[in-house]
Amino acid sequence: MSSESGTPRRIPRHVAIIMDGNGRWAINKGWPRLVGHRKGSERVKEIVRAAPGLGIEWLTVYAFSTENWKRSTEEVLGLMKLFQRYIQREAEALSAEGVRMRFIGDRRRLEPKLQDLMAWIEQRTAQNSRLNLTVAINYGGRDELTRAARRLARRVVAGDLDPDALDEAALDQALDTADMPDPDLVIRTSGETRVSNFLLWQAAYSEYEFTPVLWPDFTPETLTEILHRYGTRERRFGGVTS
Ligand code: IPE
Ligand code: IPE
Ligand code: MG
């Protein structure tokens, strides 16, 4: 649900990142796009490790959108392999570091092997609370809202939900992000200034930061600079400040 309104926080509790620019980073160096994705996944590890020390409690990263299936089979399969490897290789470290890992997006379209690994790591890290890491895979804000609407419609038809009782809280709880706080800050790397279907509902009052840095070059220092800028912002949530 919405973060507590009014009081501005110096440190964003929930940071969401659109990790963009892997392909360009690789192409600029004359390498295949997948090399950029591999480097990008190394960056995720570093940011996950640095986040708790920066005061971040929730970190959500956009790894694969519902639109990314349009890419070549080679790139899509390479990315899926990378997600599997990340879970397998990081399970130990994530557990040791107190990271709770979860996923948002429609996982039914993913390979069964990957789906199993996702369920496995979610369960394995379920008791952790130092950092809540959420990875968006086959995620699209419109798709998430559509699936939520379908879920609620089914409940109405079943007589389990009165349409007049359908309020913002009910819709919020029907989303993949149920029980997660809204992001305070959304960062997009690579210089693009669009949301590309990310957290459309949840980011209604988020602050946005756009950096030209390509994701494979994004370091904890880049994040620290962005957090400093965020700290100077005034959040009003539609109200006025005295
Ligand atoms: C972001 O990097 C990662 C994914 C979308 C999977 P891109 O692959 O979009 O990199 P650019 O935007 O082509 O440079
Ligand atoms: C957004 O990046 C999706 C992810 C970072 C996973 P894209 O590269 O897919 O977005 P567009 O196509 O530039 O809008
Ligand atoms: Mg891109």
Description:
With 242 residues, the chain is of the alpha/beta class. The chain has a single domain (14-141, 182-226), classed as 3-Layer(aba) Sandwich (Undecaprenyl pyrophosphate synthetase). Helix content is 40%, strand content 15%. It has helices spanning 22-28, 33-50, 73-96, 112-124, 141-157, 168-173, 220-231, and strands at residues 14-18, 58-65, 99-104, 131-139, 185-188, 207-210. It has a 6-stranded parallel beta sheet with strand order 3-4-2-1-5-6, with helices on both faces. Strand 3 (99-104), helix 4 and strand 4 form a beta-alpha-beta unit. Helix 1 (22-28) crosses helix 2 (33-50) and helix 3 packs parallel to helix 4. The model is unreliable at 1-8 (pLDDT under 50).
What string, H for helix and E for strand, traces the elements in order?
A: EHHEHEHEHHEEH
Shape: globular
Main sheet overview: 6 strands, parallel
Based on helices, strands and strand pairing, what is the structural class? Answer: alpha/beta
Oligomer: single chain
How many separate domains make up the residues? 1
